[in-house]
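Batch job 17 of 40 flagged for manual review because the log was empty.
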Amino acid sequence: MASLAGRTAIVTGAGSGINLAFAHLLLRKQCNVVFADLALRPEAKQIVAAHSSPSCSPGRAVFQQTDVREWPQLEPGQVTPLFAPMYNASKHGISGFVRSLAPLDHHHQIRVTAVAPGVIDTPLWRDNPEKLRLVDESAGDKWVSAEEVAEVMGMLVGSGGEEEIEVVRSSAVESGGAELSNGNGPEGKRMVRIEGGLILEIGKGRIRKVEQFNDEGPSGAGTTAGKSSLADGEIFEMLGSGKWGV
């Protein structure tokens, strides 16, 4: 992995959750980080304070209050739940944006990649009862840590251009109509090159490449919330009651 020491990163949403873990990872790699968010949670304030001067740490951290107009409805995975249509539109837009900019990597060494996190153990879920009720741990739903996602993000931004990353090899039909297998069952491993346009789904203990065509959708532990259908059912109930929008 290419060194990130001495570089500077602007991390939006670094006040908590996944991007706080990512910002912290960058600081540990001696990268300077601008924490861009509406506010910092207490744990984020501690990290910024600990990296506020060269005498404290080789990686400097500063906070810049920033409003990126986040969508209020968030749902994990490469799915399109009824109850979060605006976020679905923005999510698919990001995927198209990343893939459209893929040629920049070859021509100008500007690499645009993305991660598609599953159900991540962050305040966005834990502090939101309406979202938290959709997670059913008793039925096998798994939480993915923010640090797990940050590690993959670090690989994407720190690669030197020729590196590869290990991902699961699913049973999805790929190019040529052939079902790939390496003898380890439907979830063997394969290596994919880290390059522009790459989108990686992050589940619990697993990384999956999101294919541009014929993608199988979210799979494996930590990629979906088992009770998501509850929210859809409530919408149908409101529509049937005649009180929609009242």
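Reviewer: the log was empty due to a logging misconfiguration, but the result itself is present. The beta strands are 8-12, 32-37, 61-65, 114-117, 164-169, 188-193, 199-203, 206-209. Unflagging and moving on to job 18.
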